[in-house]
From TrEMBL:
Keywords attached to this entry: Cell membrane, Membrane, Transmembrane, Transmembrane helix, Transport
Entry keyword Transmembrane: yes
The keyword Iron is annotated on this UniProt entry: no
Bilayer topology annotation: Multi-pass membrane protein
Record-annotated membrane-spanning stretches: 73-91, 103-125, 131-154, 175-206, 226-245
PROSITE patterns the UniProt entry points to: ABC_TM1 (PS50928)
Pfam families, per the entry: BPD_transp_1 (PF00528)
GO biological process, one term: alkanesulfonate transmembrane transport
Primary residence: membrane
Protein name: ABC transporter permease
Family: Belongs to the binding-protein-dependent transport system permease family.
């Protein structure tokens, strides 16, 4: 069914984007919104091109983009490397879940930006404090989804493994981990999106490079064209990251037949 519907989704998505673009043009060209507050598509495209060729405040635009991607990648990879094992342990071993469950229940409602003063106090204004903020949000999602994945493994699969005489290691590698992967990948995809979204907040900490710094700095000078250009770049890169995460999910979960 999904393959039958797929060709219809792409044109509908394009129609939605074109409709939004049309409303944007009508709002600006029709005088409904002052171009001082919302630049038109043509003016914004021209300004974005000038950022590409001339950079922002002496730094090439590519540098701002790559710095933000590097910070996000480090924070996100650290979240995956630590969050998946912790979540699997919480789901697999009841004492670990009982010990750490209340801790994560307490920390989960706290937005990562609330830790900015502590990050600056303990880690200073360098890269470590920025990466910590980017790390925190995906870490929570990944831990909770990994734990839920273990708990969702079918009991019949576990009984089948026991009947086949699997050792504890074989039970984990052949039953628990494969059965948990769909939920883990949901956490990874969500974490990737959240970590990229947090780059703006992280780069408010005395950054001199990065898309978040560019947006915040341009906002201070009321340079709305640069603000909008930075926001659109953040959105486009986030969209591409989501596509990459979906492709990775398809490769890892090819056995699901989706």
């Amino acid at each position: 069914m999904s393959r039958i519907l797929m060709p219809r989704r792409v044109p509908l998505g394009l129609v939605g984007l074109l409709g939004l673009l049309g409303l944007w043009v009508v709002a600006v060209e029709g005088g409904l919104v002052d171009e001082k507050w919302l630049p038109g598509p043509g003016a914004l495209a021209a300004h974005t091109w000038s950022l590409i060729t001339d950079g922002y405040r002496g730094t090439p635009l590519a540098t701002h983009v790559l710095v933000s991607i590097r910070r996000t990648a480090i924070g996100f990879l650290l979240a995956v490397l630590t969050g998946v094992p912790i979540g699997l342990a919480m789901g697999r071993y009841c004492p670990v879940g009982a010990l750490l469950g209340p801790v994560f229940a307490l920390l989960r409602p706290i937005p990562p930006i609330a830790f900015i003063p502590l990050a600056v106090l303990y880690l200073g204004l360098g890269e470590s404090s920025k990466i910590l903020l980017i790390f925190l949000a995906p870490f929570m999602f990944i831990v909770l989804n990994a734990e839920a994945g273990v708990r969702s493994v079918s009991a019949s699969w576990i009984r089948a493994g026991q009947m086949l005489g699997f050792s504890r290691r074989q039970m984990f590698t052949r039953v628990i981990l494969p059965g948990s992967l769909p939920s883990i990948m949901v956490g990874v995809r969500t974490g990737a999106a959240v970590s990229w979204a947090l780059v703006v907040a992280a780069e408010l900490i005395s950054a001199q490079e990065g898309l978040g710094y560019m947006v915040a700095s341009a906002g201070n000078f009321f340079d709305l064209k640069t603000v909008y250009a930075g926001i659109f770049l953040i959105g486009i890169i986030g969209f591409l990251l989501d596509i990459a995460a979906r492709q990775a999910e398809k490769r890892l979960l090819h056995w699901q037949g989706r």
